[in-house]
Amino acid sequence: MADELTHQVLQAAVSGIEGRERPGQLAMADAVAESLVLGRHLLVQAGTGTGKSLGYLAPVLAHVSGTDERVVIATATLALQAQLANKDIPAALDAVEEVSGKRPKAAILKGRTNYACLYRARSGGVSAQGSLVGSEDIQEAAPDLDSVSRLGVEVLALREWVEEEAERGGLADRDDAPTHTSAGWQQVSIPTRECLGVAACPFGQECFVEKSREEARSAQVVVTNHALLAINAMHGRTALPEHSALIVDEAHELTSRITTAATNELTPIIIERAAKRALTWLEDDLATEFLACADTLRDALEESEPTRIESSSAPVTYAAAQIRDVSRRAASALSGKHDDPERTQATAAVKEVFDIAARIAGLADADVVWVSDSEFRGRAVWVAPLNVSGLLRSEVFGETPTVLTSATLVLGGDFSSFAGSVGLSRSDEVADDVAPDELEPLSWRGLDVGSPFDYRSQGILYATKSLPKPGRDGLTPEVLAEIAQLVWAAGGRTLGLFASRRNAEQAAAHCRRELPDFKILCQGDAQLSELQREFIADPETCLFGTMSLWQGVDVPGETCQLVIIDKIPFPRPDDPLMQARKKAVDDAGGNGFMSVAATHAALLLAQGTGRLIRRSEDRGVVAILDPRLVTARYGRFLSNSLPGFWPTTDPDIAVRALRRLRGEE
């Protein structure tokens, strides 16, 4: 179903950014426009270079123009949200205004902690130093101050900025704040549970969060993120304004983001902090008992192995039951009528401890509980949902027509694996020619609009057949030698994606010894953003790292002509949540390995190999040094999830191709 206004808006938007319309982008825009009219769910795979942002923005703006309908767009991260807000949406709004004479209103909506809290900023104590001089004067001396003093300077600057935002009617969005650390921002923001509420807060009428929500309620396009979408789904759809349709961008990350939002952690430190905040209003015996709960959990964690907890008699679940009972009594003692904001916030912190402890002690079939051990954070107990597909099916797709789009939704050759992971079953899929009155509430269509890139002529996929299978003892000498040879052939210009930090460091050390003329950067040498800048600036540099580099790294041109992947990225055997999900599928009679582990690996492989070709001029090689891609039965499923590069198992072909790119053959 072609939409003339959509076509006109898309054409004007593309012209406005001096781009060119692509067939895939036009096909996507038509499909989104049709989905909005029919109320049918749509899955769109739009490869790199398609221009998918305008591919959905043009039909969305054409759809809401001149109406009172509202569409929500959810992106994976705040960074992508900012990109839409600052670049793509202004171009699309200019286009729809040019074509129709109407300019719909767009708004950005984030979670509460992304906005400053006036109560927290104004009620916190100001350092004596800050009362004598301004923040600009102190900033000059900041390098000579200790960490505590630097934090004080930072907080003072943030508080001054908050007041400026309040005076000018701004939103005090964290992205617009002066340079700060997480510790500094915590002094001027507030967790959702501790918010006093508009009626009880002395600064409720000026609240930045409420202003952001008012703007969203008056907008026809609201841009948010997956985390807030998750909160909206979990809490009765109260976090987002009512909307007639939903667009989920970077949809391949949706289940991971929803899972993270629904996951809770409990540590002795969390209990101690809540107890100390509540001490003033608790009787001595109860206060002492609540404080002792931190030691109760600490002792239980020391008795526990870092693994999944499935027994109600395990030390951790027994301790959680005790913490649940004590924190319930503490929360009850704190409740009641009062006008003390600090007591209200302390009550919220205690109730949060109670909720998490009760969830852990409950060991519900729908949850997974496990103990983790971190070198930096120590031991903790976690609880996460076994599956989020039911939540998505009932609270998202069951309520709102949804378009899900990403460069990687087709796994193993079709949409079924992804659709199942988000709660859409294969039986819900409908053909293109199904009449609108025959559509079921959860009916969906899958559309792959391809990519403007000619992957087969632009890239080679070298999948080894002769190297040894990966083991748990790091990279073998044969794999290290292969990596060095490929890097030498490419003249640097390599992005190395490794299964672990140890493997990345081992490969970097080997290449530095064998190829001393090349600069080899490794994750951990400096801040990741700094390493990426250095990698982009010098084409002959290599960058080796782990999962942080598998997605979101955009390095076009000769800087990245070789992508090395050392191992198929299956979930770690010691990942309790992924293993629990795999077991649940097996127990239900399905294939847990394919549904969970292979699907997870296929998605990451598709994202990782996608780092190579970012522009139509790019050329290069992806080298996957795990023979299981070629030899294992599941290898075809994984290969069918990757861009259509020209395939080979011959390392000499890969080496010669890389040398030709350097003009040496």
Automatic annotation (TrEMBL):
Keywords: ATP-binding, Helicase, Hydrolase, Nucleotide-binding. The keyword Hydrolase applies. The keyword Acetylation does not apply. Gene3D superfamilies: P-loop containing nucleotide triphosphate hydrolases. Belongs to the helicase family. DinG subfamily. GO terms for biological process: nucleobase-containing compound metabolic process. Coiled coil: none annotated. InterPro entries: ATP-dep_Helicase_C (IPR006555), DEAD/DEAH_box_helicase_dom (IPR011545), DinG/Rad3-like (IPR045028), Helic_SF1/SF2_ATP-bd_DinG/Rad3 (IPR014013), Helicase_ATP-bd (IPR014001), P-loop_NTPase (IPR027417). GO terms for molecular function: 5'-3' DNA helicase activity; ATP binding; hydrolase activity, acting on acid anhydrides, in phosphorus-containing anhydrides; nucleic acid binding. This is ATP-dependent helicase DinG. Its cofactor is [4Fe-4S] cluster. Pfam families: DEAD, Helicase_C_2. PROSITE patterns: HELICASE_ATP_BIND_2. It catalyses: ATP + H2O = ADP + phosphate + H(+). The lineage of its organism: Bacteria, Bacillati, Actinomycetota, Actinomycetes, Propionibacteriales. Its EC number is 5.6.2.3. Residues 11-301 form the Helicase ATP-binding domain.
